[in-house]
């Protein structure tokens, strides 16, 4: 058998063989050692979901992709400090970096403005996590309504409802007051219900 043909056959078998799926611990260990294969696996495994998160805080997909790229540079650089027991799950650790990076870019570009005009009426902050479920409309209508939110409202709404941050944490992240965070959330809630034709009782 021709030697070069034998080598080609070996390469073909290796190419067609099922790829080995790396365990999360192996990916982390590989990234800490600077292995490109582990970094690629990390990106391929998490970039899709993280792009969706970055898009929550961006005006368009291009901005989100730029933020995601910058976030992963930080992830590769700082993963040596990651400790599962202390920092929680890898997914949440990555998500935190993506959110913070996107918000930091927005802050640099001064895209999001937060006003201090607190409403004097008493606001009920009850079961906001079920907000979307309380609004009549299809999922597409809800997503369309979310995308219509003014930037400040949208950021606070996403951080509170989707990411689970407290008003104090949001205030610290965005360098605003707790009252401003509460005000923006209330206005976002009313904006969504108005857009979707949902009348509050």
Description:
The chain has 201 residues and is mainly α. It has 2 domains: 19-109, RNA polymerase sigma factor, region 2, helix turn helix motif (Rna Polymerase Sigma Factor, Chain: A, Orthogonal Bundle), CATH 1.10.1740.10; 128-195, Arc Repressor Mutant, subunit A (Orthogonal Bundle), CATH 1.10.10.10. Helices cover 69% and strands 0% of the residues. The chain is built from 11 helices and no strands. Helix 2 (24-32) packs across helix 3. The protein is elongated. The termini are far apart.
List the SSEs and their pairings:
Layout: H1 3-16, H2 24-32, H3 36-56, H4 61-78, H5 84-87, H6 90-109, H7 131-134, H8 139-148, H9 151-162, H10 167-174, H11 178-195
Number of strands: 0
Give the full name of the CATH homologous superfamily of the largest domain.
RNA polymerase sigma factor, region 2, helix turn helix motif
Query: In what range is the share of β-strand residues?
Result: under 5%
| Classification by helices and strands | mainly alpha
Total individual domains:
2
Poorly predicted parts? 113-133
Largest sheet: none
User: Span from first to last CA?
Assistant: 83 Å
**From the 3D coordinates, which CATH architecture of the largest domain would you assign?**
Orthogonal Bundle
- Whole-number mean pLDDT: 78
Radius of gyration: 22 Å
Q: How many distinct helices?
A: 11
Under CATH, the topology of the largest domain is which? Answer: Rna Polymerase Sigma Factor, Chain: A
Query: What's the overall geometry?
Result: elongated
The helix/strand order is: HHHHHHHHHHH
């Amino acid at each position: 058998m021709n030697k070069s043909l034998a080598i080609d056959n070996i390469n073909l078998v290796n190419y067609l063989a099922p790829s080995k799926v790396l365990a999360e611990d192996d990916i982390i260990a590989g990234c800490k050692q600077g292995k490109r294969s582990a970094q690629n696996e990390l990106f391929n495994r998490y970039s899709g979901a993280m792009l969706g998160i970055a898009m929550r805080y961006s005006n368009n997909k291009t901005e989100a992709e730029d933020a995601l790229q910058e976030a992963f540079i930080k992830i590769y650089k700082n993963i040596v400090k990651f400790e599962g027991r202390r920092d929680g799950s890898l997914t949440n650790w990555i998500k935190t970096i993506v959110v913070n990076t996107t918000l930091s870019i927005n802050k640099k570009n001064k895209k999001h403005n937060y006003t201090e005009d607190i409403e004097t009426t008493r606001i009920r902050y009850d079961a906001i996590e079920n907000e979307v479920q309380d609004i009549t409309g299809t999922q597409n209508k809800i997503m369309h309504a979310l995308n219509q939110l003014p930037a400040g409202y949208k950021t606070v709404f996403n951080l509170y409802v989707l990411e689970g941050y407290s008003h104090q944490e949001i205030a610290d992240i965005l360098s605003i007051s707790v009252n401003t965070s509460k005000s923006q959330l209330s206005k976002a809630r009313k904006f969504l219900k108005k857009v979707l034709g949902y009348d509050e009782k």
